[in-house]
Design goal:
- It is a single chain.
- By secondary structure, the chain is mainly β.
- The chain is built from one helix and five strands, in the order αβββββ.
- The protein has a single domain, classed as SH3 type barrels, CATH 2.30.30.790.
- A five-stranded antiparallel sheet has the order 4-3-2-1-5, with no helix packed on it.
- A hairpin with a 2-residue loop joins strand 3 and strand 4.
- The N and C termini lie far apart (43 Å).
């Protein structure tokens, strides 16, 4: 039974070789359908957490939109995600950055990693 489920999941996995972690600034391009039209929209923000594995892997991205902060959870193996780019590597000491939710403005800045 488990072999059948794994075989079906393997077919659905996307080939994305993007290395990112908590604190990194990424740009997620995803497809949006409006009626019969389809367009690509960008969502750029800081990775708060990654969770799950296999087909259920997700990433939570937080961005500032004016004075309001918006978090969005993206399923990594969704066919609606066109591409993911890592813009900056963040230097953090946590795997889950939930403490960012209580901060606003300059306090939400994360130091950038030096070198590679």
């Amino acid at each position: 039974m488990n072999d059948i489920i794994r075989a079906v999941e393997r077919k659905q996995l996307q080939d994305r070789k993007v290395e990112y972690g908590a604190g990194d600034t990424i740009n997620v391009s995803f497809k949006i359908r409006e009626g019969d039209k389809e367009r690509i929209q960008q969502f750029q923000g800081v990775v708060v957490q990654t969770s799950g594995s296999g087909l259920g892997e997700t990433v939570t991205v937080r961005k500032s939109s004016g004075n309001v902060y918006v978090e969005r959870i993206f399923p990594m193996h969704s066919p609606l995600i066109a591409e993911i780019k890592v813009l900056k590597r963040g230097r953090v000491r946590r795997a889950k950055l939930y403490y960012l939710r209580g901060l606003t403005g300059k306090a939400t800045r994360i130091k950038e990693k030096k070198g590679k």
